[in-house]
Design a protein that fits this description.
Chain lengths: 619, 49
């Protein structure tokens, strides 16, 4: 049975193909269109998924869309009615979008599928599982558990903003729901907006900023108290009640009422790209703490309701890996599986899996290692594509090397302090680069964080980098017990690797903290001595694992920096050509594409100036 | 027709009959907006639609 899952028309469009219960291909449209968070029908991603499996639209048994549009429309109308006449401006903008298109999502899907090769004569079954059910299926069905509690938390789907489900075998039973407008995701996004980042993409920056807050200061405690007193009431079971008089997202075009928030916190909304000050960091830490508290309470409720020792998570808030790490260390569950594409893109495989197991009632086989196999579900490119790059740009590459020679040579370059663009095999599905579209470097180098941020990624200097560690060496470097293959858990760096902090460390400003060398692996040790860990297994990515081991033989550290292969505002590279372009536009030293090595000093001069930067809208 | 069938089935299942007249008015209003040159795109800072 073949089912195509689609997520589209909101943000992060994606397609996924499920064949007999296995996700055989999945990709996000932005990687093809090069438009970050592209929300259009994922025509290129659909074409890719079908091509990967050698299928056409007529071969599909069903197409599953990741939410119920009419239910969402009902929520919009009831919300406008509840806030009338307050939301008139938003109403006037929203209604043409709906009546002119989204209300007839069936037609939008059929039109999109025609662009992807459908003739229009196929008798396609279109299915619409609910948004949070799609998230729940995306986490539970590929998980290594036969039975588990499922927690989904995001901004909003139709009405649900969070849910607790119980998964058993192939079945998923919804146990609890939190409903719009009360939403953990939208609360976090409201702070993302107020602190000057872009909603729906800057949330991870807020998470990265939070540790710069002073955990010992009275101001953080005061902000946290104000959040709880003025904005959100957190109940014992983790459900929340937001004071909607202070928010604007339900009926307006802004997240919050700026004046009210300025009164609460004593400073105005930070203008995007303006300097970050300590009070911004402190507020970031306060909302991160409140979010962690809510997630932990929800998890305890999920455990109490289901009695299961296993937890699956999905939804945008499940990408808050700081909260995930805390949840793991809290020991509420024995094992936790987080869907790596937890945002709306993950709704595509989720909808397809929900259709397969729940609608068509097909049995599920549990894979003890999880069924995602490293989330390498996207397109791969071969020697012919590399030759095109060489011919088009006059690029100079080594001959194709055997794996051992390639790994040893790359490890030499890494150990010599070079920054390497590492492009291999199938592209990852989800927001993280997991060693197939990655930029890697030596984490022991004190200047690496600054170099990578400013000369290669062209992004804010405060942004942290993540380590990729050989799975078997995890506990040598981090206070973590279980593998984190999808870079979704933050855990402390081991105490013996940390360097003593100055007495006034927490009082230092953002730059003071940033430039302080915190551990023997400074480039991946965040300000609060934590790291967002990816464990690399020889089972799912043998070549990357070999590279890390070879690097370890040279330096003693079986850890490399792993950051996504892109610059700020650009979707992660998909093809060798995009990789070469990114390599030449930045100060990256080496590019490895499959079996070939490109050294920067051997390449012809790159003709572009800095104009290309305008191609990317800053996130 | 497919859309009308969907909306009918939806109202029936959810027992939200009041949606019927609202949708008819909205379709007419939107036709006026679109024909009057209004945009069907959503220029937004942040929207939940």
């Amino acid at each position: 049975m073949r089912i195509l899952g689609i997520s589209a028309f909101y943000h992060d469009s994606a397609a996924a193909l499920v064949v007999d219960g296995q996700i055989v291909a999945a990709a996000q449209e932005e990687r093809f269109s090069r438009k970050k968070h592209d929300d259009r029908f994922p025509v290129n991603a659909v074409r890719y998924c079908l091509e990967e499996a050698g299928l056409e639209v007529k071969d599909l048994d069903a197409v599953a869309f990741y939410d119920k549009p009419l239910l969402k429309f009902e929520r919009l109308l009831e919300t406008y009615y509840a806030f009338a006449p307050g939301g008139f401006a938003s109403f006037v903008k929203a209604m043409p979008v709906w009546v002119g298109g989204k209300l007839s999502t069936r037609k939008l899907l059929r039109d999109g599928l025609k662009d992807a090769g459908a003739t229009g004569k196929e008798k396609l079954k279109l299915l619409f599982p609910e948004h949070h059910l799609s998230h729940a299926a995306s986490a539970f069905h590929p998980s290594p558990f036969d039975e588990a509690a499922i927690l989904t938390i995001d901004g909003v789907g139709e009405w649900s903003t969070a849910s607790i489900c119980h998964g058993r075998g192939k079945d998923i039973e919804v146990k609890r729901e939190l409903r719009f407008p009360h939403s953990v995701g939208l609360l976090y996004s409201a702070f993302t907006y107020f602190l000057g980042f872009r909603v729906n993409s800057g949330e991870y920056k807020l998470m990265g900023l939070a540790p710069y807050g002073d955990p010992l200061s009275a101001r953080v405690k005061d902000y946290e108290d104000r959040i709880r007193k003025e904005l959100v009431h957190v109940h014992d079971d983790g459900s929340i009640w937001l004071d909607m008089r202070k928010f604007h997202y339900a009926q307006g075009l802004r997240m919050v009422k700026d004046d009210a928030w300025e009164r609460i916190f004593g400073f105005p909304r930070r203008a995007p790209e303006s300097p970050l000050e300590q009070h911004h960091c402190d507020l970031g830490l306060a909302i991160q703490r409140v979010t962690e508290d809510i997630v932990l309470r929800m998890a305890r409720t999920a455990r109490a309701i289901t009695g299961s020792p296993n937890l699956c998570m999905a939804g945008g808030v499940a990408l808050n890996c700081v909260a995930n790490g805390l949840l793991e260390r809290a020991g509420i569950f024995d094992r936790i599986f987080v869907q790596p594409a937890s945002g709306d893109a993950g709704g595509a495989p989720g909808a397809a899996l929900a259709a397969y197991h729940l609608h068509f009632e097909q049995p599920r086989t549990v894979n003890p290692n999880d069924a995602l196999n490293g989330s390498y579900l996207g397109p791969a490119y071969g020697e012919a594509d590399i030759r095109k790059v060489i011919n088009r740009f006059g690029a100079v590459a080594s001959p194709a090397l055997d794996e051992e020679a390639l790994v040893q040579r790359t490890a030499d370059l890494l150990a010599a302090g070079k920054v390497v663009g590492w492009f291999q095999g199938r592209m990852e599905f989800g927001p993280r680069a997991l060693g197939n579209r990655s930029i890697i470097g030596d984490p022991a180098s004190p200047e690496m964080q600054l170099k990578l941020n400013q000369k290669i990624k062209f992004r804010e200097s405060f942004r942290p980098f993540a380590p990729a560690v050989a799975e078997e060496s995890l506990e040598r470097y981090f206070e973590a017990r279980t593998p984190s293959p999808y870079m979704l858990m933050v855990h402390p760096v081991r105490a013996e690797l940390r360097k003593p902090l100055p007495a006034d460390y927490h009082a230092l400003d953002l730059r003071g903290k940033l430039y302080h060398e915190r551990s023997t692996l400074p480039a991946i040790t965040h300000i609060d001595m934590s790291a967002r860990i990816q464990t690399v297994s020889p089972r799912t990515n043998p070549r990357f694992h070999k590279l890390i081991k070879a690097f370890g033989q040279r330096t003693g550290n079986e850890v490399v920096i792993n950051t996504s292969f892109n610059v700020r505002g650009e979707p992660i590279v998909r093809t060798p050509e995009e990789a070469y372009r990114c390599f030449m536009r930045t100060e990256m030293d080496v590019l490895v594409v499959n079996d070939r090595i490109f050294l920067k000093e051997e390449q012809p001069a790159w003709p572009e100036g800095q104009e290309w930067m305008k191609e990317h809208v800053l996130d | 027709m497919e859309l009308l069938r969907d909306i009918w089935a939806f109202m029936k299942e959810r027992r939200k009959w009041w949606l019927g007249p609202v949708i008819i008015v909205l379709v007419l209003l939107t036709a006026v907006l679109v024909l009057g040159g209004g945009s069907a795109l959503a220029p937004y800072i942040y929207t939940l639609f």
